[in-house]
Each structure stands twice: as C-alpha cells, then as structure tokens.
Amino acid sequence: MADTEGVSARRRVDFAAKVDPPSRRVSRFGTQVTTMRPTDPSTTRRRLLRSLGVGAAGAGLGTSVGAADPTAAADSAAQNRQPNTIDPIFGLASAEPNPCGGDADASCFESFPAAVRPDHEVEMHIGLPGLLLALAEQGGLSEPTTTTVNLEAADGDIVARNLHRPDATVEIETPDGTVTRTVAEIAELVTSTVGFHYDPAGIHVNPGDVVLFSAETPDHAVAAYHERHGRQNRVPDSVGPIASPQIPVGGSWRYRFETEGVYDLYCPPHQVFGMVMRVVVSEGDSVPSLSVENTGRPPGEESFLPDILGGLDPNVPSSHAALTAEPLAPENIVQNGTVSWEAVVESHRSS
User: Fold this and answer.
1) Which residues share a beta bridge with 124?
2) Residue 51: left (phi > 0), alpha (psi -120 to 50), or beta?
3) Cβ pair 209, 256 in contact under 8 A
4) What's the pLDDT tens digit per position in 302-337?
5) Most distant pair of Cα atoms in the chain: their distance
6) What pLDDT was estimated at residue 34?
7) What three-state secondary structure class fits 135?
8) Are 178 and 172 in contact (CB under 8 A)?
9) Which of 153, 123, 124, 125 is nearest to 309 (CA)?
10) pLDDT tens digit string along 245-265?
11) CB-based burial of residue 283 (10 Å sphere; 0-12 exposed, 13-18 middle, 19+ buried)?
C-alpha cells in the first residue's frame, strides 16, 4: 500500500478553536453592529490570501504570484504625459505600462521624461510557491510532518532522512487538477519560499537620485517608517511621511531621495510578512548613521508567513530581523551598492 500523508484534523480543530465568537459594538452613529468571525479555517485563510493579493489560483504552480506581463509594451507617449515633478511625500505614481517591468535592462530609464527619469530600480515581488498555497487551503500537513519540515527548513538545507515520512506522498488540489508530491519535495518548496519582498532590499543612492519602484505582483506599496504613520521614525530628521498609493501590477512609483541619511521603508499590506527595505543616501563612500526615534510601533519581530502556509515556516526574516541583518547594515549597502533580498534571507537562515 502506498505511503500517503493526510491532512491534519487536529490542525483544523486547533485553528478553529482560536477564533473568537461574534462581537458586538456600537457604531459612531449609535447603532449596534454585530461582527461575525468565520470559524472555518480554510475560509479564513482564503479571505486572508485574497486580501493580500495571493491565492492558489493566482499563484499557479510557480514561485511568483500574479506577476506582471513582461511582454506588455510601454506607451512612450503616455509616459511623456506624466507630470514632470515628484512630490516629496507622495512621490509620482503611474498606472501606465512600466517600461522597466519584467526583464527590461537599464536602457528602459530613457523612456521616462528627463526631469523625472529614474536612476535605479527596485522591484516588488511575492515569492510564494502556488503548490504551498494550495496545500494550505486544503489543511496542510500533519503536525509531526510539519514540525520536522520546519526544523529542516530553518537553515535552508533539507536532509530528507530527518523528515517525518519523507517519501510519503501528498495529493494537492490545484486549479489545474491534482498534483502529487512527496514530503521531501514539499520541504524543498518550503526552503525556496522567499515571501513578500523588495529586490534589491538594500540600495545606495546619491542625493537627488530617483528610484523607480516596479510592481511585478499585486497589492504593493511603499511607506517610510515615520511617526505620522504610527511607526518608529527611521528616516532622516527633516524627511516627511513618505507614502505611495497601492501600485497596480505593471505600474510604478517614483521617489526622489534628496536628503542624506538612512531610510527604512515597508510595504503596508505586507509588513507583517517581513516586506521591508533600506535606502542609504550619501555622497561617495560616506556612511550615514541610522536615526531611530521611538515615536510609534517598531518593525514587527514576527513573520506571519506560517499563518498563510498551513503552519509551514520557511524561516523568512520578520521586518525587524531583516532590518537588523548584517547585509542591510548601512556600511554594507554603501560598499556593495545593492543588497539582494536573497542575501538577507540567507544571512537570517544561517544566523
């Protein structure tokens, strides 16, 4: 008889047991409002995934979710109709096809008007394997198997013999039909998961440089850690509460970094999953100091990726862990010019 791995009923019960009963409150208009809290874990997870711009259907079976079409041609005339100024708080957003989307090279910057032409690009991605999302939606793995997968995935190096029933097969229902994978293959998928991220995650720019943020996947935005966002202040003293709109897939947002210093930025919808980055603005090789004021919430110390992956934990850094990782130290960013998100993940897993 084939060795198969089943869905954990205990996981379903435990998840449901954590859900609070309906709550009642009085609205500001004086009427009583009842808030229903769903008790079905798969329904709860699907709603969470949709709210974050991800889902098994959108993910397909690859490692990116809802990716922009790199073959979409940019409308140069439309780009030239864009405003020729960049707001010091709200930057410059565009829903027009991004000339730098997909695999375009640096020559794509020439498609923008000279006054607002980018000098650098940062892409925004969702690195979640679609198969893991589909597995999570159907309940995930058993508790013993999940525990051993997480222990092995912690350092990014899977040793199959250390897994609980590594050769057991798992049937995963996807939009394209049933897919069968072994526990060992699923463990490898977990280690390939890099989550929601900016890439590069660290970048050194000169004062006055324009950075283009390209939305390769859905529901991303850019905001500074700033007291007016209810956060710690983690930007230079004279810098305001930088904030982009939510950027549509295939669109872009530009910001001119005028003031020297260290800027810690986050994606508002995905900060809870560790989607942060650091921009260091300075002349030449000078390394400015990071300024932190405890004016509000600090970067989160926990990543909630396991909550949407059925308990599987790829050990992707939280926002706090990413911003305190050695690769994102200001001196390393200045020395290297850019630091990839992959380097941040590898450093975290090896620490």
Assistant:
1) 198, 215
2) alpha
3) yes
4) 999 999 999 999 999 999 999 999 999 999 999 999
5) 69
6) 31
7) helix
8) yes
9) 153
10) 999 999 999 999 999 999 999
11) exposed
